[in-house]
Every structure is written in structure tokens, then in C-alpha cells.
């Protein structure tokens, strides 16, 4: 790996981005949907000639949050009561802390579980990086203050510095690349993974904002942290609309935004050996769409598209009502100076039109509203369909268990998709605790801490 190739996306990750764009925009609410512009809200013929009218229509359009409400409802269901860790007294003391503070940021296991369930329902994937800070302190330094010698922390120092295994929530959007290998038995093993993050910082000296892009790479042998700094840009709704924008173009732009270039390469800022011999990453996929375990389709993508349909019909209805709510002034039999525009006509509250022509008639013409009625009927049908799609995960029956052990434990019983996802979440946390135990038994690590806190790996672009 080098600074010119870091940040590239796996081809399957690029393919997943189209669906992710839709779900991210819907979860971002009205502002996010407006900012997607023509990628999700096409222009009509008149708006292609007058882009400002298109912007005005977007600003009159508001999102009905059917998709976000459905995901939130799914997350709320399993966590009506807090997660309780059974037989916690059998765990080493360092692992007991995970129940109340599983990421060293005071996030308890129940809150972490909600984050994972949200990710499962939204993307089909839930992921955790299980890490442990370095347990060494510097003892000697060179003339520049850089450490040259280290010693292992004492148990008291480890306790004082909260040196123990912890869980980092990783949003699937931040996983940009990965690789697999087969062991001697043919089993698929995760050989490497790259996790991207960007953070916006302000230089205290110049007060200039900048974007720090970071790629954390874990393999079975080593870890590496790569970083580069870019000028910050502010995205938002613009009066200048790219009429050629679509989902495929937007997805391609997203994938290239993280890639290194000859002009803007990443720099290696931290590296070291991986004492575990395995990539400390655990995940569950409840919506597999290929033989690659890290490829998933959003489980509620049909609801997401229906919510986009809702948005488009709402936009049309809002535009229709805007233009047809006001009656048009109609004048017949007017004198030539009035008819040809020589005499200005002003109407509205308190306005008066005066003419000496006895044949002139003034009135107002109103539309029948038939088009708006049809749009409202269509919108009601869509809302009914959205409700049905949102409730489906609580109703649809699937066979319990996805592994031989789970099937044996569950028998042949049927359960809803939400119940199945909850079971998968339990196994994910079980895997995470096993990985944490591996850290505990791996011995003292001579690597520097590479910890990225949860805010570093949970943000979606």
C-alpha cells in the first residue's frame, strides 16, 4: 500500500453506493432530499429553461419521513428493556466494564445495540471494530522529543489509563475496501479491511476550516493509519443546477472523493504489528446479495423507493396548488389602451379598475382543481403502501437461525424479520466479546494506540 492507492473503493462498495445514497438522503430529511437536486427530483420542461423555478419548487417540497420512521420503529422494538449481560461475573474484570462503557466514551451496551440495530435495518450490515490501546509508555526521547524507548505499563497504570479492549461502532458507509482469503479448509477469512473517516477541523491560529481524511487499514499482520488534509467545502442547495446529475454519477463522485491522487496523496502517520493475527472486525449481514459476506442491500429499499415516490408526488401537488390556488383576472370588452398594456392594470386587495367602456367586464377565472384531487388520491395510496412496507419486517415470517448452532437452538420455529435481526445482533455481540477476550489473552502489545473513537467511524458522508 502507498499514499497514491489508499482510499480506493472496492468495486462491490461502489455498486452498493446507489442504494445507500437513497437511504441516506431519506434519513437526512427534507434538507438532504432537496440537496440531492436532480438526482432524486427531476426537472420538468419549464424548469429546464428556468432553473430558479426548479429551486423554488424544491423549497416548497417537504419530506414525509416514512422510511426514517420505519427504521426508528424497528430499532425501538428490541430495546424496550436494557441489554443485560448474563454471567458477567465469569468474565475478566476488563471485559465487565464493556457493559456500562463499551467504547471508552461512556456508551453502554444498550446504546451500542441500538446503533447496531439501526445499521442493520438501514443497510443490512452491522459492524464493530474491537481494539485495545497500546499498553506502553515512553522512557527515552531524542533531541526532537520523539520517543525512542518504551516499557510496558504496570497494572495500576493500565487501570488509571483505562487500557482495555473496547468496541468501536463502524457504519457500513465508512467501509470502503476489504479482501478475503481461504484457509487450508476452504473457509473464508477476512484478510484486510479499510475504514474511512473525514473530520472537519478549524486551525486555531488562522481560524480556517479544513477537512482531515483518514483511512485506517487492518490486516492479519499489521495496522496502518493514513491521513491527508483537504480544503473544506460546503455542500447545499444551489441556484445552479446540474441537469445531468443522476444516481450513478453521484455515486461515482462519492467513490472518487476519498481516493488518493498524485497531487493529494495520503501520508502514513501510524503503523505497527497486529498482535492478534486476525483482523479485529466483527459483523453481521442480514440482507446478503452476493457470495461476498460484506455485500448487502438495504432491507427496506422498496420502502425507500416508495418514499421517493411520495416525495415526487408531494412536490407535484405542492407545485400544482401553488400555481392554481390563485384565480386569474379576466377582462373582456376592454378599450385598446387597456388591452394592449398601455394602461397598467393593478389588482389585489383594495385595488380598483376604472374604465369608461360600458362593454367591459371584469371577473376571475379559477381552475377546477381536478389535477390536485388526483394527486391527493395518489398520495393517499402511496401512504397506505408505505405503511404496509414499514410494518412488513414485524409480520413476515422467516426461519430462525442462520448457523447450525442457531438452528439447533431455535429449532424449526418461525419468527419475524425483526426478531431474526435481533438474534443476529446477539451473535454479533457474542463475537465482539470473543474478540475482546482474544485481546486480553494476546499479551502485552508493543504497538502505539490506533484508537479511533466512535465519532470517527460512525459518521455517513
Summarize the structure.
The chain is of the alpha+beta class and 461 residues long.
Keywords:
alpha+beta, five-stranded antiparallel beta sheet, three-stranded antiparallel beta sheet, 14 helices, about 20% strand
Structure overview:
By secondary structure, this protein is of the alpha+beta class. The chain has 14 helices and 14 strands. The protein has helices at residues 11-35, 45-49, 51-59, 66-76, 93-96, 109-123, 155-160, 247-256, 301-324, 336-339, 370-395, 404-410, 417-441, 454-458, and strands spanning 125-131, 136-141, 147-152, 166-170, 175-182, 188-202, 209-219, 222-231, 267-273, 281-285, 328-332, 361-365, 397-399, 414-416. Strands 5-6-7-8-9 form a 5-stranded antiparallel sheet. Strands 4-1-10 form a 3-stranded antiparallel sheet. Strand 2 (136-141) and strand 3 (147-152) form a beta hairpin. Helix 6 (109-123) packs across helix 13 and helix 9 packs antiparallel against helix 11. The two termini are 24 Å apart. Residues 444-461 have low confidence and may be disordered.
Amino acid at each position: 500500500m502507498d499514499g497514491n492507492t489508499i482510499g480506493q473503493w472496492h468495486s462491490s462498495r461502489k455498486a452498493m453506493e446507489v442504494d445507500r445514497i437513497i437511504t441516506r438522503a431519506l434519513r437526512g430529511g427534507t434538507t438532504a432530499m432537496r440537496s440531492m437536486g436532480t438526482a432524486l427530483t427531476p426537472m420538468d420542461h419549464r424548469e429546464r429553461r428556468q432553473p430558479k423555478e426548479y429551486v423554488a419548487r424544491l423549497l416548497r417540497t417537504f419530506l414525509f419521513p416514512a422510511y426514517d420512521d420505519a427504521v426508528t420503529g424497528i430499532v425501538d422494538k428490541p430495546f424496550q428493556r436494557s441489554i443485560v449481560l448474563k454471567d458477567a461475573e465469569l468474565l475478566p474484570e476488563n471485559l465487565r466494564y464493556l457493559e456500562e462503557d463499551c467504547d471508552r466514551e461512556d456508551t453502554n451496551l444498550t446504546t451500542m445495540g441500538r446503533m447496531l440495530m439501526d445499521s442493520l435495518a438501514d443497510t443490512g450490515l452491522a459492524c464493530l471494530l474491537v481494539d485495545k490501546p497500546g499498553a506502553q509508555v515512553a522512557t527515552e526521547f531524542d533531541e526532537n522529543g520523539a520517543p525512542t524507548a518504551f516499557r510496558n505499563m504496570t497494572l495500576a497504570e493500565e487501570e488509571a489509563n483505562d487500557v482495555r479492549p473496547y468496541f468501536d461502532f463502524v457504519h457500513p458507509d465508512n467501509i470502503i475496501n476489504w479482501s478475503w482469503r481461504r484457509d487450508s479448509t476452504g473457509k473464508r477469512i477476512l484478510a484486510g479491511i479499510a475504514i474511512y473517516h473525514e473530520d472537519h477541523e478549524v486551525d486555531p491560529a488562522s481560524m480556517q476550516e479544513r477537512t482531515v481524511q483518514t483511512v485506517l487499514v487492518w490486516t492479519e499482520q499489521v495496522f496502518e493509519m493514513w491521513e491527508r488534509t483537504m480544503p473544506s467545502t460546503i455542500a447545499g442547495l444551489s441556484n445552479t443546477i446540474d441537469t445531468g446529475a443522476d444516481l450513478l454519477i453521484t455515486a461515482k463522485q462519492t467513490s472518487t472523493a476519498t481516493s488518493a491522487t498524485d497531487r493529494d496523496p495520503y501520508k502514513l502517520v501510524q503503523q505497527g504489528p497486529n498482535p492478534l493475527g486476525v483482523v479485529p472486525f466483527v459483523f453481521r449481514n442480514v440482507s446478503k446479495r452476493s457470495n461476498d459476506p460484506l455485500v448487502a442491500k438495504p432491507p427496506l429499499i422498496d420502502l425507500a423507493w416508495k418514499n421517493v415516490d411520495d416525495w415526487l408526488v408531494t412536490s407535484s401537488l405542492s407545485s400544482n396548488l401553488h400555481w392554481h390556488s390563485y384565480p386569474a383576472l379576466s377582462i373582456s370588452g376592454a378599450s385598446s389602451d387597456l388591452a394592449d398594456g398601455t394602461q397598467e392594470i393593478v389588482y389585489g386587495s383594495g385595488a380598483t379598475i376604472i374604465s369608461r367602456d360600458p362593454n367591459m367586464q371584469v371577473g376571475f377565472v379559477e381552475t377546477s382543481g381536478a389535477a390536485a384531487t388526483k394527486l391527493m388520491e395518489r398520495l393517499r395510496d402511496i401512504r397506505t403502501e408505505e405503511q404496509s412496507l414499514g410494518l412488513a419486517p414485524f409480520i413476515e415470517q422467516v426461519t430462525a437461525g442462520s448457523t447450525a448452532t442457531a438452528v439447533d437452538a431455535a429449532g424449526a420455529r418461525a419468527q419475524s424479520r425483526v426478531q431474526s435481526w435481533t438474534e443476529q445482533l446477539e451473535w454479533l455481540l457474542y463475537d465482539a466479546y470473543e474478540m475482546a477476550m482474544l485481546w486480553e489473552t494476546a499479551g502485552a502489545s508493543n504497538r502505539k494506540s490506533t484508537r479511533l473513537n466512535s465519532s470517527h467511524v460512525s459518521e455517513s458522508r
